[in-house]
TrEMBL record:
Protein family: Belongs to the iron-sulfur cluster assembly SufBD family.
InterPro entries: Fe-S_cluster_assembly_SufBD, SUF_FeS_clus_asmbl_SufBD_core, SUF_FeS_clus_asmbl_SufBD_sf, SUF_FeS_clus_asmbl_SufD, SufBD_N
Domain SUF system FeS cluster assembly SufBD N-terminal per the UniProt entry, residue ranges: 25-170
UniProt cross-references to Pfam families, sorted A to Z: SUFBD_core, SufBD_N
Protein name per UniProt: Fe-S cluster assembly protein SufD
Residue ranges of every copy of the SUF system FeS cluster assembly SufBD core domain listed in the record: 178-407
UniProt record, GO biological process: iron-sulfur cluster assembly
Lineage top rank: taxon: Bacteria
Species of the source: Lutibacter oceani
Stretches of the chain forming a coiled coil according to its record: none
Amino acid sequence: MNLKEKLVSSFLAFENKGVLDLDSNVHSIRSKAIQNFEKEGFPSKKDEEWKYTSLNSLLKHDFSLFPKTEKPIGFKNVKEFLINEIESYTLIFIDGVFSSFLSDTTHDDCDVCILSSALTRPKYKMVIDNYFNTIAKNNNSLTELNTAFSVEGAFINIPKNTIVPKPIQILNFSTGSEKEALLQPRNLVVVGENSHVQIIERHQNLSKNTVLTNSVTEIFVHKRAIVDYYKIQNDTKDSSLIDSTFVTQKQQSVASVNTYSFGGKLTRNNLEFYHEGEHITSNLNGISILNNKQHVDNHTLVNHKYPNCESHELYKGIYADKSTGVFNGKVIVQQEAQKTNAFQQNNNILIDDGATINAKPQLEIFADDVKCSHGCTIGQLDESALFYMQSRGIPKKEAKALLLFAFGNDVVEKIKIPQLKSRITKLIAQNLGVNLGFEL
């Protein structure tokens, strides 16, 4: 039995676990999703969207879908992965199971809780019916797979006119209780009119066992709302992540998704923005620092459907050894979306001859009164700048790291949480193999 067959057959066992309301609308969504996955299967390099990323090495594993054992995890085991310098709400999941002991949730001015509660409680039925799987539906087979097994993850519901006083941290940990584990967290974020929230998300393997995480997040940003979303991807060499995030925005809203990819065996980021009103601003920023045989694939889409909107996209990559980067950024400007400003930039540095970058910026413009641009650069470090710094007494390793840090710093500068900015700076220094000797 291959992995696809195992997952399809496991769906019946998943239903029989008793966690589902078989009469609910969500159950019918799940049933349709597993049928779609069975029909489509896993994507391959024959698919244009997966041309440069192969899942073959992952599909050979016999992943366990339901952990059979539990490993006790305390705060000391996860402390280093939290941004402890700030007060925050925290949602911590251990092997796909919510840890109330380690988490800090709230229902005071907003709902920061878990999806399983929202799916089963009548008070959230209207929210689930209106939002769940409405922008992730029919996207790709891996999203369908997540939908079929979606039962746990973060549920964040911000009412209108609310500024969430603290950032929200979402952390998914794998303990290695199974030799090969497949985790499928599902997050639903609804931000009401005139509201503001900051969210930090991380997936972390605490063991040396093989883990594949297939995560899906839906974010709904209403009128004049502001969302700042940060993804930290610095997992172990035996961990792979397929992260799909879908954002829909109403008029005059501002949504920013920032992705920092440093660790993991294979990482695929699918990020899609859909405009549903005028005067919308979308910001997509990312930096990848890879070595060994790591592989990171950033696939983005911004669909401009209304006039007078903006999108700003900046992705940078630093690739060493035999690592591989992929960037596919698509911007669609519909005929009605006049006076659109859409800017896309992808810059890459290849440190070693064995490193590879596949870049494919795309603009599909059907309107005539727009300002749109895209650019892509691929190069190496400036040897004259490196020589100049060495001539001023800076060792070659530190000079090289400083140049690389400066290359990616404009992405770091977009972080609005100072403590997170400091953490990302340290992670960059760590992945460049130096102590930069300063804080930002």
